[in-house]
Structures are given as C-alpha cells and as structure tokens.
Design brief:
The complex is a heterotetramer, with 2 copies of chain A and 2 copies of chain B. Chain A is of the alpha/beta class. Chain A is built from 12 helices and 14 strands. In chain A, helix 7 links the parallel strand 6 and strand 7. Classes of the chains: A alpha/beta, B alpha/beta. The complex binds thiamine diphosphate (TPP) (2 copies) and magnesium ion (MG) (2 copies).
C-alpha cells in the first residue's frame, strides 16, 4: 500500500471515482492542464479528456451555478473553488438553489454535486487565502459539509461525498495537504458521512477538532501527557450534519471539553457544539467548555498569522483550564 | 444571410413578421400554419384568462403573491412552441405561459402559487425547472443543463426566461460567458417588459438594446418584437435549431410590455401613468392575432366567446381541484431536504410534532 | 408625539439624518419613485432628489460594492437590499472588503456604510423572502449587525447605525413593519449599539429574542403568568457585537434560559448565545438552555410556514421545560 | 472623429503609436515630450528591477507570495501617468507599477508583500486602494469612488486595474453596467496579459476582444497595444479627460503579455512552452522605447547601466528599510477592525496576550 499525502489521496479518489462513474465531471479554474494550483487534479485531464476535466472561465458563481444545472440534468459534477476565500460569490447559489432543489421540486430534481475547496490558514498565503467559512455553510439547510484531517480520511470521505445523492461542500485543509503521509489503499473504501472519528481515547477531557486542527490537538495531547492529563481527541469529519451523539457520549465520559477551530470565534462551529453539549450532556459538565479558535478579526498577513491560529500551546492551556476549573 | 446576421444588434433592426395591425411585414410570411396559429391563439387566451383568475383569487385571499404574465403571452407561447420533447425550460417567476406550454397542469401551477408544496413537483418527463425567484440566478442553471446534455451527446436544448432587470446581474454575465466559451445549447430569452418593478428599462442599463449584450460574449443576439407571436417563434426556432446542431447559444430580446402590476403586491400607479401605458395597448399580442385570424375567417366575437367559455370552465375546475388539495402535513417540509433524513432533522421533526 | 409604525419610524430616521448630513446617500432597487417595496423610503427622492436617493440597476453585488467605494471616498451610503434572500450575492463584498477595509489600510480607509434589508418570515411571502441570515453576518469580522424590535427602537438604532464609523447591517423584521404602533419622537435620539434591552424583568427564566420574535416572547410571557412563571425578556438589539454581559447577568439571576430565533437552528445565533452563557454563567445554570428556532430546512411555502416559525406556544413549552428540568 | 470612434472595437483595430521596432505608426506622434519619455523609461526600469528583486527575495524566503509585473510595465506606467493629483487608483494585485507611480514608497510596498501589516497604509493624500486579491471585486469600488466624487461635484477620476480573467466575473459586469448608467468617471483598464494563471485568453471568453465588451454597457471601449507606452498613455488620457468632463466611463483593453509566472507560487512550464513566449519577446515594452530613445541619443548601454545602478541602490535601501521594520505586535491585528474595539474583541486580545 502506498504512502500518500492528502493531495495524492484526493487525486487518487477522483481518479478512481471518475473511472467508475462516467457521469463525473471535474470543473474549475486551472483544474486542467495545470492540475489545480495545488496539483490536486494533476493528470486528470490528460487521462479523462477536456470534456470531463474542464478549465472554466474565472467566475465562481458561474462554476457552481452551471454545476448545479449539470447535476440537475443527471451528471455528478465536482466543482473546485480555488481557495475558500472565493466561495463567497457562490453562497447565493448554494443557499438559494443548491441546498433547496430537492425540496423545491419534491424530489423530482436533485443536486448530487461536490464543491471542493482548499481552506484554512497556516501556509503564509496572501490575503483571502486563509479563511475558514465552514460555520456559514453549516448554517445553510440542504447541504452537507465535510472536512478531512488525514490522507486516508480524505480519500474515504471524498468517495462518500461523491456518491452522496445530495450536495456536499468538501473543504481541504491546505496546511496539511503535504504535511502528513500515510498508507492509503487503492480502490474501494469509503467513510460514512455524519460520523465523527474517535482519534484517541482518553478519560480526562475531550478535545474536538477537524481539518488541520486535529494534528494540533494531538500535539497538545502529547504534551499534556507530561501533566498526566489523558486527552480524548475527536475528529469531527462531517461539519454538517454534526454527529452530536459521539460528542455527547465523550463529554458524558470525560465531563470536560475543548473545541478547536481556525474560524473566527463568534458564531463559529464551536458555538454549535457547545449548544449541543448543553442540550445533551449539560449535567455531565465539570467545567465550561473552552473554545480555542481564531479571533473575530480578518486573518492577519503572514508575519502575524501565528497570533491568529490555534496552536498546541493554546490548546494545552485551555485543557489545563478546564481541568483545574 | 442568416436571421442573426441580418438582424445583428448593431444594425438597429428589430425582427418582426406580424405588424400590430395584423398585416405582414413585406417579404415576411407566417412561420406556421393557420391551424397552428389558431391553436396557439387559443392557448394564449387560456393563459391570459388563467392569469387573470390568479389575480382575482389573490384579491380574494385565496392565492399568494403572484406575478402576472399579462402582455407577455406571445413571448412565452411563441418561444416554448419552438421546443421539442426532451428540451428544458428554465423559468423565472412570471412564466405561467411557458410552464403550461410544457404540459404542467394548471392545477399544479395554481397549487404552487397558493403556497402549497404539493404544487412544487413537475411530473416526470416534463423538464421544467422550479420557479426562480432570485433574479437572474437561473440563467446559469440553463447553461449547466444544456452543457450537461452536450457533454452526454444528447441533443437537448435549454430555454431560459428572464427579464430586462435580470441582465444587470452578474449571474447573467457569467452564464452568457460560459455559454459562449463552451458553446452550450442554451437559448437566452429576455422578456424586456420595460420594467424591473418600478425601474424602467432606460435606467437598467445604458446599452441601447439588450440584444447587443451578446456581443460581449461572442454570441448571436437578436431583438424581436415580443408581441409578435410569429417573430418570437421563428427567432427562437432558429436559435433552438442552431443550438441543437452545435452552433451554441443565442440571446433573444423580446420587446414587450408588462400591462399589469409587477406582482399582486405592487401598485404601479406609484411609478407609471396611464398615459405611458396607452401607446402599448394597440401593440398587445392578442390584437394583431385577432386581426390576422379575423381576415382568415378564423376569429370573431362569437369564436372568442366560445373559447373564453371553454377556458373558464377548465380554469374553474383547476381552481376547484387545487383548492381541494389539503395543506401538507408537517412531514412534507422535512422529507425532501435530503435523500435520507439526517439525525438532527429527525430530532427536529419529532420535536415539532410534539408541539403541535 | 406621533404614533408610528416601524416603516414610518425608519422613514423618519432616514429623513432626519439626511437633512443633518448631506453625505448620506440612499441607494437600492426601487428606493426612488416607488419608495421601496415596503415604502420605507417613501417621499425621500421627492425631497432629496435623484442624486441622494438613487434607483440602481438590479444587482445586489453592484449595490454594495459601489456603496463600499462611496463610503471609502467619504460619503455615508445607506444601501437597501430589497429582501434578505438577496443579500447572499453581497457576502463576498461584505466579507472580503467591507468588513476589512479599515484593517487592510491601517485605518486610512474606512467604510461607514449601512446596509438595510427587510428580513424574516411570517408574511406569507414567496420563496426566498423569509430568511433570517443574521448568524452568517455575525460570523463575519469587522461589521456590526443590528435588528430592531419596535418602531421606537428602529429609529434610535438606525440613527446610531448611520452615525457609526463602521459598516452596519440593519435587518428590519418585515413581519412587524406595520404591526406595532408606538410613540416615536421627532428629532434627535439614538440607542447605543452593542447594548441589549431588558424588555421585561422576571425572576424565573430569561427569554432572549430579537426582531419579530420579541413580540412572540412577550406573548408567551403573558400566557405563562397563568402558570405563575415570571419571565424576563431580553431584546438583543445588536446581534454583533453581542452584549454578553446583559445576557450573563440575567442568566446568573434566573438560572434558566430560552433563546428564540427564526433562523435555522444549527449554527444560528442561539448557539453563540449558549456558548457565551457556558463561558460566563455555567455554574448558575439550573437547566440546559432551550432553543426555539426555525428548523434546518428551507422556509416552507405560505401554507406550511406556520410549522416553521417559532410561536408563543413553542416558546411557552420551552420555558415550561426549562422550569421543570 | 474621436479616438474611441476611430478605434471602435468592432472595427477590429488596435490603437498603436510606437511600433515594436521603435518607429512611429504613420500619422501618429508621441503624446509626450522626449524628456517625459525618458523619465517614464527610467521609472519603468526602476519598476522592472524592483519587481525582479521581489522575485529574488521570495526565492530567498524573505518575501511572501508575489505577483510580478514583468512585461506589463507600459500598461501601468502609461495609464497612471495620465492621472492628476487627487485621482484614485484601484489596483488588483499585480500593480507594483501603478502603485509606485502614485507615490507609494517601495519600502512600504515591499513591507506589505513581506507580509507585514505595517506596509498596509497608503499615506494621506495618496489615493491608492489596498491590493484586491478577490479577482474583479475592485472594479465596483472604482465605480463607487468615482460616483461619490461625481455626486460631490469633485472632478476626480478613478482608474481601476484588472486582468483578462477578471472580465469573466459578475462584479466586472455589474461595475461596467453601473458606470454606464450613472456615467461615473471611471476608467476601466484591463491588462490583457493573455493568461489567468494557466487559462489562456481564448478560453476565458468567446468575445473576440475584451474591448468590445463595452458595447454591452453603452460605453466606449478601445483596444490598445499595451506594450506601447505612448498608446496606453494617450488612450488613458482621453478616457480620463472624458471622464473628468462628465463623459462617463471607458473600457481600455491593453494587449500585453505576462512574461513571468502568475505568482512566485506558479510554475508556468506546466501550461505554456518557451516557444509560445518567443514571439512576444520582441514586443516587450522596453525594447521599442530603447530603439526610440536610442535614435534620439537618449539611450545606450552606458545610460542603461547607470540607470540600473542607481535603481539598484535605491532598491537595496528599500529592502533594508523594509526588513528593519519589526513584525507587528499583537495589538496591531486587533486595533483596526473597528474604530473602537468592541468588548468581545478586547476580551479576545486579553486572552491572546495571556497565552503568548
Ligand atoms: C436577486 C434579486 N433581487 C431582487 C429581487 C426582487 N425582485 C423581484 S422581481 C424584480 C424585478 C425583476 O425585473 P425583470 O428582471 O425585468 O423581470 P420582470 O419582473 O419584469 O419580469 C425584483 C427587483 C429578486 N427577486 N431577486
Ligand atoms: C475571485 C477569485 N477567484 C480566484 C482567484 C485566484 N486567482 C488569483 S489571480 C487569478 C487569475 C487572474 O487572472 P487575470 O484577471 O487575467 O489577472 P492576471 O493574474 O493575469 O494579472 C486567479 C484565478 C482569486 N484571487 N479571486
Ligand atoms: Mg422586466
Ligand atoms: Mg491575465
């Protein structure tokens, strides 16, 4: 079994799925010859041709709006938005059409569309290349939102997203595109949407993270061993719909929780997770849940970005805080 | 010279076959048989009456907010008639004409506008997208549908309706541009009814015609008399055939007039006078067809009365049938959000049922 | 003092502020001759002319993108988005520019812009005319979000929004545009942004609402008197930044809370409020906070809309639930 | 006949004054004096060298991702030179040329691209908007700025830069349309450098020229040789004067070529061959100016070396100055979000400081 990074794992998933299902079409800016600015679609146009791997004009609304039409017609488009910062022009189509068409036609028309986009910070990118808009999308009915945290996870979750009969936003944590290598099997396997992953068992405190933050959480957990704190780490995987049962079960066990995300704090997904814990496990809580997040400010330029991003130190501090409450 | 060359937008010419007085433009002839013309007239009449009924029902509190077609019947009937089985219609929100032309039942149409989810489903095989309220957004859908068909090698055309106001939206631009680049078999039909709610066409864009916007995308564009059933039909037919045979998209501007309010919620006296409407009245698409058919002995008051009576009967029945459909159960609004209801939605539905 | 409804109160605020400050320009679809589809800008064009009350082409991105440029230049534009469902095309400009320009220029350029938009359900409107996207906007850094709940509040809050040196999204609950009449003074008064309003004191439970839901909450509170439940009602007024102190203080007192909003439940503002209570008042909680909200579905068509919207019955049930926990 | 009539986009003519071999198009003459030409040449050289330095610094890890101007110097220098004090420039993200022309210091420019917030502030009086990364979005800002000036009766013009790719965005469309309707004093300068990252101009739009897109908005449009400093300057000057005197917006397409990578993160060998670049090399805007100035005895190798040495010295200093500026303190990223820091932000800043 080959050791792949996340870019390669996603590329493999696309390749295999496109072989399996000729209704799949990849479209986006620079996805063809260029193979995408991160090389995620590398080689796909050469293999599947220009009718299945399509370089579009530079227009994000256009990409998702036409992909919506394709999906309704019966194709299974996979649209790439080059960076999450450019998904905002798509929100109109996503909210007003993509998430509603099944409902608006009583099931006559459906939209089996995947929108892939690199997201998040930590690569010293220019402005508007480091955002984390997952909570905005999680608030929109009728779509699913998925974020993988490792190459293996990425392939499995992408396969499920592609096969899902409904629209899925698939955010790829660009910071760990090439940072982790692990064994990724060729061929068929998929990971169900809507189920969180217990990454590491622990009895003292639950840390909930997704995307690139899972690695930060694991690093913090490692550090915390020195303090004899036994951390349970949950990778949320699917942002919408949330697997509240796995979260609640863990909190019922540990009584303490820390949520980690890169997005701005206010109205980030952390809030929803706390609300779910409030509803399902309040009586188990030994301490307020802590949020380790980005701040309610634009993501700073590269030289100051480190202030913004959650890191193992901040996570460990939060864990200690909930432990000593 | 093709129709689109002859009427290139920068020539300043508007394509017309049947003049307002019911006579033919010299050198032009009707593109369809008299039988067809009569059948389409009958359909237009049915549509106008069904539209009027909707307005009436709304005033009686039996209907939701509704956007009437009044005046734009030729645009929709003429263009939709140019489609073949399997083709798609992507409507905006004023498309009673195109919708009924595609075979959707009046009952179903009414149900939707009565605010009943049971009117939301187009029957299998009728490729009519749901109403698109967010102006202009649907133009992209029509490009996607047509593009998909093209990629599958299926000779299907998508006809999309939108207004003069919609041409100001970025979506229209991106749709036209994609259609141009990928030569998708999309026919863009702009019903230029002179208004976007209160905003007149002249304030919507500084371009002299809507048709000339096609030049920005390397596409054909043509301005047609949108109150002339024949011109609308023929221009659309040429565009549809061109699209089907791989020639790419066309932008058709149908010049017409919205005689009614924007919607039942609108009071047009706020922004236009009766005097402004007056010159448009003789241009009504029905007037010229009555002249034309009258000349052939196919129309007179008596025929009109008979057709009207028949239509009203059918409409009565549709209203009755629609009103007989009960308001949906609560499950109905949760059931179609996803193929399979996810856990949070199940919980929410359970909760809601417990509170009713 | 005249008794005005909310439409009239907002109109009055606009009129007075435009008289006071000639940099104010109103722009949007149908705001001129028509006076807006709800008549909120009625008479303004006749009074201030076509250069200050401007009918724009039908293009929401265009409206807010050009208004941004106007604001940067030094005007104080007030842009109207005709219905909240059409604010989605503006999110790109709002997130990527409007909320960032002060930061991106170290204070050299600023954006004193107000975006007004009718929002929310309950008027049996067509599709896409009943949404409540406030949580999405509250997640975006650099902008404020304000929602009034009565005519008096509307005038005062709008004046503060107009005078605020930063961008403000001002959502007007269309359901109560004409439903409430109250005394609204002419002339100068304003209500500070960022401060919630204690509408009604109570000792048993705190109900937090905003916009049209304040009235529903008050109705529920009235009903609950029969059950001897003394309800405190807080009108949030400013959605972003949230007045967490007022909320926490009330919860510390009552120990119980219910949050009411029309927006979809998941990642709605209710989640953030619960998270803030978790952080600031967890130990005071006698019961999980309840959320009475819309559902994670598109707002239904008129005949089924009543299923969706929170109502006094659902609020009262939630209050009873937290009381009997 | 005005320049814009003579070069109406559908005539198929591209406006040029100085040919690639340094001679003048017959009937044309330089629009500025030889002294000015020399000064602008010097400026262009400085910009090219400062641009190259940025690329070098990036390779050494001393700079962030950077989008080089290489090849587009005439577009930016020629157009910005047509502005007057008080006018605005609204850049995209490749505008080292226009930015420096407006008087922003190289140190400040470098600071920003080094990722240091301290480079984000344009000095008072220099009306240069910050870099706009989201493609096309800034076109609307330029319309707003110009519109505001017009409403205030101030004779100010806004010049906005964007690429061929940007013309596909809805924002461009809405901006052009607003500008057309309200006749805002906006000059739209499209640097058609043949690529949007890897996507060639031919796949970006089916319209033959970018200039002809102006027709959709009832505006003037003109295609100019973007590697010809004289043509760029004169066309922009006419557009600026027209704008200032109430004549409304103009779309200028400068035909040029991006010699470098899209950004320092890009590998152009993935999508274009050396052979494709070859024919563009003699069209480099510097080549023709050297011929032209050489003819006048105002350019030779020695002069070039002297100018280069002077420029490099200035650039050295700017690098040194920029690198001497420390990374900002944590307050810096919270301080400018609002005029007054709201309570939640204060709490967050306190918290963050406690964790450092
Ligand atoms: C994006 C968007 N903005 C605003 C509205 C509100 N609105 C509904 S119809 C309309 C005018 C549409 O004008 P036009 O495109 O000419 O179509 P017509 O109504 O004339 O058929 C407006 C502003 C909307 N539905 N969608
Ligand atoms: C809205 C948006 N989509 C995608 C990108 C990523 N991106 C940056 S530059 C660029 C190409 C721009 O092409 P063009 O407008 O021709 O300008 P050029 O880079 O050639 O100067 C792309 C796709 C972006 N910055 N913004
Ligand atoms: Mg119209
Ligand atoms: Mg380019």
């Amino acid at each position: 079994m080959a050791k792949l990074n996340m870019v390669e794992a996603i590329n493999l998933a696309l390749r295999e799925e496109m072989e399996r299902d000729d209704r799949i079409v990849v479209l986006g800016e620079d996805v063809g010859k260029e193979g995408g600015v991160f090389r995620v679609t590398d080689g796909l146009q050469a293999k599947f041709g220009k009718d299945r791997v399509i370089d579009t004009p530079l227009a994000e609304t256009g990409i998702v709006g036409t992909a919506f039409g394709m999906a309704v017609y019966g194709l299974r488009p996979i649209a790439e938005i080059q960076f999450e910062g450019f998904i905002f022009p798509c929100l109109d189509q996503i909210n007003n059409h993509i998430g509603r068409i099944r409902n608006r036609s009583r099931g006559r028309f459906t939209c089996p569309l995947v929108i892939r986009s690199p997201y998040g910070g930590g690569i010293h990118a220019p402005e508007h290349h480091s955002d984390s808009p997952e909570a905005i999308l999680a608030h929109i009915p009728g779509i699913k939102v998925v974020i993988p945290s490792t190459p293996y996870e990425a392939k499995g979750l992408l396969i499920s997203s592609i096969r899902d009969p409904d629209p899925v936003i698939f955010f790829e944590p660009k910071r760990i595109y090439r940072a982790i290598r692990e064994e990724v099997p060729e061929g068929e396997y998929s990971i169900p949407l809507g189920k969180a992953r217990l990454v590491q068992e622990g009895k003292d405190v639950t840390v909930i993270a997704w995307g690139a933050m899972v690695r930060e959480a694991l690093n913090a957990a490692e550090q915390l061993k020195a303090d004899k704190i036994d951390v349970e780490v949950i990778d949320l995987r699917t942002i919408s719909p949330i697997d509240s049962e796995t979260i609640a079960a863990s909190i019922r066990k540990t009584g303490r929780g820390v949520i980690v995300h890169e997005a701005a704090k206010t109205c980030g997904l952390g809030a929803e997770i706390i609300a779910l814990i409030n509803e399902k496990a309040l009586l188990s809580l030994q301490a307020p849940i802590e949020r380790v997040t980005g701040f309610d400010i634009p993501v700073p330029l590269p030289k100051t970005e480190h202030y913004y991003l959650p890191n193992p130190k901040r996570i460990a501090l939060a864990v200690k805080k909930v432990m000593s409450f | 010279m093709s129709l689109f060359e002859e009427y290139h937008p920068l020539t300043g010419k508007m394509f017309q076959i049947l003049k307002a007085d019911g006579t033919l433009v010299s050198g032009q002839k009707p593109p369809i048989s008299d039988q067809e013309i009569f059948a389409l007239y009958k359909k237009m009449l049915f549509i106008r009456l069904a539209d009027q009924r909707a307005l009436m029902l709304q005033r009686q509190g039996r209907f939701g907010t509704y956007a009437p077609i009044w005046g734009q019947e030729a645009c929709q009937v003429g263009s939709a008639y140019a489609l073949q089985k399997g083709d798609w219609v992507v409507p905006a929100f004023r498309e009673i004409g195109a919708t009924l032309m595609m075979g959707i039942s009046l009952k179903s149409f009414y149900l939707y506008w009565m605010g009943n989810e049971m009117g939301s489903r187009a029957p299998e095989g009728m490729n009519v997208m749901p109403v698109s309220v967010p102006v202009g957004t649907q133009t992209l859908h029509a490009v996607g549908v047509a593009w998909a068909a093209k990629l599958r090698g299926e000779k299907v055309v998508a006809l999309v309706f939108f207004g003069d106001g919609a041409t100001s939206k970025g979506d229209f631009h991106e749709a036209m541009n994609f259609a141009g680049v990928f030569k998708t078999p999309t026919v863009f039909f702009c019903q230029n009814n002179q208004f976007a709610i209160s905003v007149p066409r002249s304030l919507q864009t500084a371009s002299k015609t809507i048709a000339q916007k096609a030049i920005a995308y390397g596409c054909d564009g043509i301005q047609v008399d949108g109150n002339d059933l024949f011109a609308v039909y023929l221009a659309t037919k040429e565009a549809v055939e061109k699209a089907r045979s791989g020639g790419g998209p066309t932008l058709i501007e149908g010049v017409t007039y919205r005689f009614g309010p924007h919607t039942t919620a609108d009071d047009p006296t706020k922004y236009r006078t009766e005097a402004e409407i007056e010159p448009w009245k003789p241009l009504d698409p029905f007037v010229r067809l009555r002249f034309y058919l009258g000349e052939k002995g196919m129309w007179d008051e008596e025929i009109e009365n008979r057709l009207t009576a028949e239509a009203q009967k059918e409409i009565d029945q549709a209203v009755k049938d629609a009103e007989a459909v009960p308001s949906p159960q609560v499950e109905e609004i949760f059931q179609y959000v996803f193929a399979e209801m996810p856990h949070p939605l199940k919980e929410q539905l359970e909760y809601l049922k417990s509170t009713l």
